[in-house]
Each structure stands twice: as structure tokens, then as C-alpha cells.
Write a sequence for this structure.
């Protein structure tokens, strides 16, 4: 079993829908990252969080340390949100463990 | 501010050839790292560095070599390329080893024939 599991693996939505991507992990962490990888391949950081909730525009990330679970929500989804979303956990010792990613497609 | 610059973007090698993937950052970040991304798998750590003169192995270090002579540069060397090293490689940096936002390069797609 992977130490970081994302669900779903693939997600197709219609423009305007509310989207949730989940990340569960089985190890102790100091922080969790949500990353976005566009079709061109570049990876950008969306959030880094160690507790509670963060919001940036239409994106919201939450984490529950006790349950070892985080969610990334996208409100009012748009085709430009189509990308791979990756969860990664900081395990200390300068090491990150990554999930396999969730491929999101938002249709107009 | 260029961020993290990675070159080349694409490279085709024959088995046994050597090459160096370059990575440079202009943010004065202490932590730099190399990952490979393969289909169906998450990014995997190859090598990392927490400062100039300090490097360490990640999950999949075999066949790769690194050095960190300056804060800015962290090259990844393939000494004798193998088909199993066909992958997309990403360099990343952050201000401190365990804190701060991650900054990634654009990626380098390597094919070994």
C-alpha cells in the first residue's frame, strides 16, 4: 500500500461544478502540499498546510491531522482547471512522498 | 526572477552514454532536489542537497550522481545511461529543507535507447 493515496485517480466534471480531490496518508508528517501539473508538464505549488484550512481564489485545501486526510476543493470549476493535482507529504529529514496524482478534466 | 531553470527540456541518449541535467535557482534556496516521474507512479526522490557541499541519496539514487558546489546549481549526472532511466526529471528547491513552498523546474524528458 502506498504511503500517500489519492482519490479519485481520474475525474471528469462539467464547467461550474464543485470538485473534491482526496489525499490520505499513513505516515507522520510535518506538512502536506498540493501541487498542480499542467499538460505542458510544469509543476506549481498550490498550498502547503500543516493544520486547518487555506483558501486561494476558487481553491480550498483542508487537512485533518488526526485522521491523516486532506482534501482539495475547487469551486465553480473551469476548463482551465484541467490538470493533474498531486498531494505530497513532508516526512521530515528533507524527504517528500508524493501521491500518484489525480487527473482532472473540466468540460465546457 | 527566473525561479528554477532546468536544461535541457528534451534529450535522447543511447545506452551507455553519459549526460548532465542542469538545474539552477536564483532564490538563494538551501534545499534542492531531483525527482523522476514515471507513468503510474508518484514523483520519486533521486538525490537532494540541504546546502552547498552537502548531498544525500533519496529513494532511487542508483545510476545518478550529484554535486552542490554552489548554492545556485545542482546538476544531475547520468554516468552510463540505461533504458530504465527513460523518464521525466524535475528539479525542485525550497528555502529550508522542511519548510516553505516548493518551486519546480519545467522538467526534462529523457529517452534512453
Amino acid at each position: 500500500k502506498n504511503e500517500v493515496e489519492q482519490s479519485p485517480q481520474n475525474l471528469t466534471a462539467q464547467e461550474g461544478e464543485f470538485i473534491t480531490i482526496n489525499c490520505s496518508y499513513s505516515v507522520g508528517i510535518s506538512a502536506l502540499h498540493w501541487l498542480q501539473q499542467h499538460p505542458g508538464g510544469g509543476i506549481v505549488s498550490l498550498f502547503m498546510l500543516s493544520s486547518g484550512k487555506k483558501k486561494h481564489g476558487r481553491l480550498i485545501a483542508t487537512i485533518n491531522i488526526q485522521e491523516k486526510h486532506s482534501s482539495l476543493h475547487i469551486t465553480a470549476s473551469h476548463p482551465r482547471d484541467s490538470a493533474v493535482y498531486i498531494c505530497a507529504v513532508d516526512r521530515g529529514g528533507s524527504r517528500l512522498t508524493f501521491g500518484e496524482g489525480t487527473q482532472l478534466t473540466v468540460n465546457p | 526572477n527566473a525561479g528554477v531553470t532546468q536544461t535541457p527540456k528534451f534529450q535522447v541518449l543511447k545506452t551507455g552514454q553519459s549526460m548532465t541535467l542542469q538545474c539552477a535557482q536564483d532564490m538563494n534556496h538551501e534545499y534542492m532536489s531531483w525527482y523522476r516521474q514515471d507513468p503510474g507512479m508518484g514523483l520519486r526522490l533521486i538525490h537532494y542537497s540541504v546546502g552547498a557541499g552537502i548531498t544525500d541519496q533519496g529513494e532511487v539514487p542508483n545510476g545518478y550522481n550529484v554535486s552542490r558546489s554552489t548554492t545556485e546549481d545542482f546538476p544531475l549526472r547520468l554516468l552510463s545511461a540505461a533504458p530504465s532511466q527513460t523518464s521525466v526529471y524535475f528539479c525542485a528547491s525550497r528555502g529550508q529543507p522542511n519548510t516553505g513552498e516548493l518551486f519546480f523546474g519545467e522538467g526534462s524528458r529523457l529517452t534512453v535507447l
Remarks:
- The radius of gyration of chain A is 13 Å.
- The mean pLDDT of chain A is 93.
- The longest strand of chain A covers residues 83-90.
